[in-house]
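Case study 2.
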Amino acid sequence: MAFVAFQSAVSAENSIEWSGGALVVIDQRVLPREFVRLRLTTVDEVIDAIKTLAIRGAPAIGVAGGFAVALAAFAHDGDPDKIGLEAQRIAAARPTAVNLVWGVRRALARVPDGPQAVLAEALQMLAEDGQLNRVAATHAADLIERLCPGRPLRVLTHCNTGRLATAAFGTALGALRVLHARGLIDSVLVDETRPLLQGARLTAWELAEAGIPHRLTIDSAAAWAMATGQVDCVIVGADRVAADGSVANKIGTYALAVAAARHDIPFVVVAPESTRDPATPTGREIVVEERGAAEVTHVGDRAMAPEGIAVFNPAFDVTPPELVTAVVTENGFVEPKGVVEQEITDISHALYARGWMPGTAGNISVRTGETAVITGSGLSKGELTEHDMVTVKIADSQPVSGKRRPSAETAIHTAIYRATNAEAVVHVHPPHATAQSIDAREALRFSGYELIKGLGAAETIDIPVFDNHSDVARIGTDIERHLTENPTAAPVLIIAGHGITAWGATLAQARDRAECLEGICELVTLTGRREVGRNLTT
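Prediction:
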């Protein structure tokens, strides 16, 4: 089938476009000496461009992967098996950046609808990328302005995260554009980014093009620049973000994060949501690409090392989540490290002081994307610290990080997250609600109490009561089934003779709802009545 010519609605700043049946890209291998556009018309040409770094940057290769599937769809129209095999080759071109697989899968899903549908999907990805980058960059600029207020900033960046690494505008470099437009950039310190010098060749070129003040430095000087007070913030991109928040990015990123942590400097990651990989639990499972020895031993055609020397040349490294201040996407940012843990700690201490979490009882969690942070098992909540938390997968309750064992009641928390939009869950053992539930069957009905409004009802509310037994996973299954079948159910429940579980959009709201239910139960204890008239409400 002949190609149908499309002209994508892109601006001059785009690094990728579709024109006349071909993928047209800026050849990043020859910048800044030359500005050359490549016209790619076959799957092999796109794969070669990705492998040889003519196209590079996680968002850019994701979009390019989508167009490569479109080329395969036109070349093998009516043969989905061949298209599928081509898609596998495309996705394997570079293993570390998850965006490539994301782009291939998204385009591949349209194959049953024909080549034009696949191309339309790739064009949609192209259009979305620039829009999403601008949103993410603005979120990142807002965060950095909050973290480093009141002064023009000296920012260090690594590798290239601008329009060359994306379809348009850029991620981390996009945030620098936004900050510069606000008059908040004093200067940008650009790591050269060995061995292929993406910082020196590409980022410096883009910053000069944008008129942003900058200096180039060798990678090994970055830590000293931080130590001597020349850096206010470090901002980088990402090729993959694991479920636990580990960040795979250009080699050298981990060292920057270590140095930034040592000098108490914010370390901010900016990437599209497509870079998140919830299927990879931790950074340990990320496959790090190793590239050829010549990238290290040669500069151009000139040998700089003894012939035949053994070389270690990883293209990426993985930064653990505890060294990352925040990961920012178009959806905003995960709170800076320690904020969630500290909030859980503070509320745990307060509820312990009230007698609602006696001994080691009770647990609290906060959703963090596809995972949740939950209090560790067997700990007094009065002595809890931010280091006593465990991160678990919401899908199956399995721990992904943390030194403690997760709470024994983790399955209850994850069941609620799977069945609702809750962002936080509080499980406590206050005396009145616990006592009221001892002989309850299925539900407790309360009517007429003003505090019912705090649970989202007007006059009457039914609080489900679940049987308590040793198989916590079974309790979780019962709760998930109930919430799935009753999507408008109250955001609180009771486990018979055990305590309250409440949830909400924030941890404070979840706590407040638990307080409202306990307050109602205390009034019932005092009045002996679960239903009262209006003139007797609190």
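Residues 119 and 501 are 49 Å apart (CA to CA).
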